[in-house]
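Example with several molecule types.
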Amino acid sequence: MTEIDAPGAADSRRPAREHEFTVEQRSQTRLVLRRFARHRAAMASLVVFVLIVLWAFVGPHLWHYSYAKFTPDNSQAPSRKHPFGTDSSGYDAYAQVMRGTQTSLKVAILIALGSTAVGAVWGAVAGFYRGLVDAVMMRVADLVLTLPLFAIALVISSRSGGSWYWIAAVIAGLTWAYVARVVRSTVLSLREKEFVEAARALGASDTRIILRHLLPNALGPIIVNATVLVATGILTETALSFVGFGVQPPDTSLGLLVSQAQTAVDTRPWLFYIPGAFIIAIALTINFIGDGLRDAFDPRQQRVRQ
Amino acid sequence: MTRSEPAAAALPPLAGHGGTSEPVLQVRDLVKHFPVMSRGVVRRRVGDLHAVCGVSFDLFENETLGLVGESGSGKTTVARTVLNLETATSGRVRYRGRDLTALDRRRMRPLRRELQIVFQDPYASLDPRISVHEIVAEPLRIHGRYGPGAKDEVRELLRLVGLNPEHGNRFAHEFSGGQRQRIGIARALALHPKVIVLDEPVSALDVSIQAGVLNLLMDLQSELGLSFLFVAHDLSVMRHVARRVAVMYLGRLVEIAPARELFARPAHPYTQALVSAIPLPDPRKERARTRITVQGDVPSPVRPPSGCRFRTRCPTFARHLTDSERTACVEEVPALVDRGGGNPVACHYARNVTLL
Amino acid sequence: MTTTSHGVRDVPVTDAVLEVDGLTVEFPTEDGTVRAVRGVGYRLDRGESLGIVGESGSGKSVTALAVMGLLPGTARVGGSVRFEGTELLGLSDARLSDLRGSGIAMIFQDPMTSLNPVHTVGHQITETLQRHHPGLNRRTARARAVELLGTVGIPGPERRVDAYPHELSGGMRQRVVIAIAMANDPDVIIADEPTTALDVTVQAQILEALQTARAETGAALVLITHDLGVVAGHTDRVAVMYAGRIVETGSVEDIFYTPRMPYTLGLLGSLPRLDRDEERLTPITGSPPSLLNLPPGCPFAPRCPLRRDTCDDTEPALRPVGPEPHFSACHFAAELADTGAEDVFDTVGADAEALARYADATTPDEPPKDTV
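Resulting structure tokens for the full complex:
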């Protein structure tokens, strides 16, 4: 790549052939992906997580039992016919865990998306305007953070009839403030960058500056936070369902499955430990993925790993 | 302070500031203070940082006016206040019959098409997340000019500044420092502005790269009849590009003169010290030079010296003045007027000295 | 000693205080090995001053750090660095820091890299003095510290001796660093861009202080800078670095008046001058090469208007051109006698056709839409 490229390159005195000297430049995204790919735990977690997602969403279409249908077999240990066994009512645990994982994932992802969207805009606006706007908006966010998440979620969702999107909305409504705080601090430093002033000198509106310049540049922290929220979402949903205020039967979730099986821990342990293992697997893989993303987005990590 | 009347009447011309035509941009008594806050939980305003104090100059059509000074001189603040990127504490900036300091953001917006800026840091001034095409197209989009022909317009702009138009889909970080500065220039040119403020446009670049950008800027200025307000700390660059040069020290203009005259026969002791401090890339000349050196560092702009702000470091004040002559330096702010040397200079005891 | 990479032979060893020979520095990175320094050699005689100039990434600072043994552990250093006949490469850290304490002093661009923020400047100077002269009592050491601060031009040294680095301006700090360097009574001072962060009026003061320091201690000086003007006034000899190598070296007069390497020529031609009118600058097109996977041939060839096929195949060695200390690494150095930058380089600016089209497209004065 030369300082002055095509124009004038036809000049006969200019070197006719150019060495390709510079290293092939990579886009920011490719750099991040490459650094992520080198994070072994994160890569392995990503593979496991994707497999779980595929299994939970595609599996039910291929499996010969439905989660809502009784089978003639009651309380059976895992077998070839029922890999995860059956419960006392004759439900196929394999189908139920699939369905439960699906519901839990849907809830968690909706929580992550909802609270990220709200929190990112909230934080960006507060950080961009600073002053009074910032003070008021962040006090509201602080207030939300002081609310006992679990108690509130309990109260609201108990009146909501247990549909998964309603539960997700409630939890998202109580977690967006975390995102807002992270995005605000990022935007506070970004707004001092010259490219923001450049946009202002061009006459760009505040909305344009926030949406076009600030948020895209805060994408790293936003994505990292979203993964953490997925894990939080899974666990909160599990807890709510466990105490009976989450997803209601006949639908099911991982939390509900564990809750229903707690009396059977000794007699039919597969009913309890298998959904439990899924909860742990999902939370753990997401956390590793988050770790990997954080390292990948953080340029200071560039040369640490050998 | 007459901030309330936006349609400022034509301002009287500044005596001895050169130029025959009507000025494009008139800056009068521009003042910019920044509050200095105390530390701790309760932050109170404990003072003011006097960044710019009563700066006046005219920028004429088709000329490059250089604004030179060391760090803390307030030159960058002048550049930003002139464009209304910082709100002036007082004073007027008149462009096309309107006082820019009285305009809010909405009313400033249509004027942004004609008043553009190129920033110092080619790394920080381009958004790393959008393509070069989008960076150059942004002014067109903002001002509703991104029509069907805009793609070609952007390619044409890239070609104009010496970049390969095929590289529009790349990102800023894929370019070298000089190329990025060219992208910044293309962005500033997109709306066909009349005035461009260049805030240290080449100081982050290596000399071999800097020369190319300077050549480009000079071509653009002369061929398109643009008016440049060129802010820099490098006097050699200034002498090369500017027709007239204004020297700033601690928030005030101390001397303004055509470039050649300023460097050949500076009248203000500060200008003399500046010119004399620049090392010449010519061993024999450099060794044969006599130097006028100044003592110490620039005082704090929070508590600037009374009277002439340069007196604390001034070699003339220290060595050549009697006590009674010094009284004027301590008590009276020297006005920026012609004191017989042909050009305005803000020193009670200005004397043209040949240094080069 | 017979031949060094810069071709000097049969010089009495006694005069040389610092000899660098075939110095290479490599940094392993994710993308491969960066060859930051590729065979740099120079010798510095007692009391002599050598300027090393180059643009960012030319390897000039890395060379200095390698000489001082201050590179990070991941760097692979090869070649030889001899201080008064003692080989420094491979020396233990303890021996090296002994040497840094007395023989070689280093001044960095940022004075805070050498100053300890939690001690007064006086403490830091006396500490250095006492390390050098263990018998020195405290009062004498302090008096000497005040004297040193005065020598480097710090006003009110009796007061400033008790100041902490953060209480001083950038220029003052750099003077303190010079005072500390002098305290060692070194034989060599290596100054790496000592004035780059400073304003010109302060730069002039610091360069003066540096001259004073040299005059007092008789130290030889290696001055590393990107500013050709600084080199012109303060050094006897100059080495121009490009892509990790010295591409031309000679007396200041050789380099500034009769350069024999297209890069040097271009560098001088691209410099706006305070002391004369130049119509056009002659920029060097393109950018310096990446030092990762550098292809064979002359690294300047892609930017060189004189490039021929040979240039892509073999990298030219430093060969004598003209009188003794003048060496150039160009296959065609002989052709460059009596050539100016404008004879070799284009004075490219804006693309003429695009400029004409842009001018046509500029709408004639339309009054700004009045939104008031």
